[in-house]
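Following up on my earlier thread - several people asked me to post the actual chain instead of describing it. Fair enough. Here it is, all 453 residues.
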Amino acid sequence: MLITLPQSDSTAPLYLRLINKIKQQIHSGEIAAGEKMPSLRHLADDLGVSRTTAEAAYNQLVAEGYLLAEPKRGYFAAGIAARPMAEVDLPSAPANTTPLRYDFGNNYIDSNLFPAAVWKRCLGHALQNAPLLAGYGDPQGEPYLRQTLARYSHEARSVICTPQQIVIGAGIQSLLQILLAVLDEAPHAVAFEEPGFTKAEQLFKTAGWQVSHFDSEQLTPNLPPLLYVSPSNPYKGRSLSPQGRLNLLQWARQNGSYILEDDYNGEFRYFTHPISSLQGMSGGQNVIYCGSFSRILLPSLRISYLVLPQSLLPAYSRVKNLYNQTSSSIEQFALAEFIASGNLRRHIKKMRRRYAVKNTLLRSALAKIFGGKISTMAYESGLHIRLAVHTDSTAQRLAQQAAAAGIHILPVSQTTAYADNKPAAPEILLSFAGIAEDDIEPALQELQKVWGL
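Reply from S.P.:
Thanks for posting it. Predicted structure:
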């Protein structure tokens, strides 16, 4: 058996170079499984290294399982199947993709509106709270924030709850993990409004739940016992009608089922007063409410919250200590102070005014540039406008053409068709939150070109 020290990487310590060389020979099969290794003295003499270096290399290889040490017999190669060592390639140059010029995606906000100086003061006060710095935080969420949210959510969204019903976490997905444990004894089936919420659906599927879709205007008794809805800002093109809200709540009561209300951007309604939550309409029964601050403040502020009905609190108390708090205690305390001081309400008013202007600019530019070649389906709430594009193309193809021109848009998946079995017009979402006002018209003019409309 010949073991040599590689000349490359000469700056690495001798014993590490020796370790890597022996690993390579074992993986390649040059040193066979069970083969006896040179003694420490012979290895040191052959390589011209100290016995200490040889022993350090062998000891490390034994610890990692590459060699077996047998008393009075020596060292032997372990039974690792021969295979080439994985090579680590340096990152290659990025593909020749078109740089992003205009972003109509929904993962951004107008960061110029964020009151950074006020937020820094709130964070500074939180950092003076020694117990917050020294612990992992309350698994359910900081009591100060839960008390503040109980008041604020009632004033802003008509939510009826106590601080004990609120569970705080870093984003909706972490909270859904907890909710799955709370609902473990219920039938594992959930239905989402069309077109659904892909990430949440995948989470339920991974947990073994049966996932389906439903039309909130056509409720049937055989629906699953949990319905996932976003009544104030749905992607389906219209807000849930008043009668539809009543029908949902009546269905839940009659069937002893639950509605999971994702109040995504429920604060943002521009031409009428924001619609109250389903949770408030239900009197706090049969509705699990979910709120978030990703779009109200910053996407990087990962704080969301669930409001559990009283009926689910015993189940939550059994599982709450199985989950660590995923949201920063410091940021929770800062958010509580930000809300309690009235800064959140003032910030939302400012955002509504700015987003209302952007909403109007986008709709005006769409009418000017596309005319009757598009139809606006929903625009009165949220941070996006939903459009139907009158073309024989598909939503995915439209998005690909836009991306090739450096424009990010969101295609909407569809299952509906016209009565004559012709496919419905492709639909897309254009978010106006993160794009600059001066970029709206040039971006739409470019879309018109690439789509050939």
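Residues 27 and 86 are 10 Å apart (CA to CA). That should answer part of your original question.
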